Amino acid sequence: VDIELTADLEEAACNDDFSKTIDYVKVGRLCQEEANKKNFFLIEALAQKIAHRIFEVFPVDWVKITLKKP
Questions:
Q1: What does the buried/exposed string (b/e) look like for 38-66 if buried means 16 or more CB atoms within 10 Å of the residue's CB?
Q2: Mean of pLDDT over the chain
Q3: Residue-level pLDDT at 64
Q4: Residues 8, 43: Cα–Cα separation, whole Å
Q5: Are 61 and 7 in contact (CB under 8 A)?
Q6: Handedness of CA 11, 14, 20, 25 (dihedral sign)
Q7: What are phi and psi of 62, to 5 degrees?
Q8: Which residues pair with 62 in a beta bridge?
Q9: CB-based burial of residue 35 (10 Å sphere; 0-12 exposed, 13-18 middle, 19+ buried)?
């Protein structure tokens, strides 16, 4: 799974404030949790579910998810 995010992180950068940025460890955990919740027949369905959850949980403007079959 490859995930690209865009977000306005100017406040975090200007103030060197970790609480104002996106915790990528949490993003990774969210992806794992969604993948483990149920069996997906289509990787597109899993990618869509992950994207929707990222938008719900994190202050992002754009998400790109790339999933590859093993």
A1: eeeeeeeebbebbbebbeeebebeebebe
A2: 93
A3: 96
A4: 29
A5: yes
A6: positive
A7: -155, 145
A8: 6
A9: middle
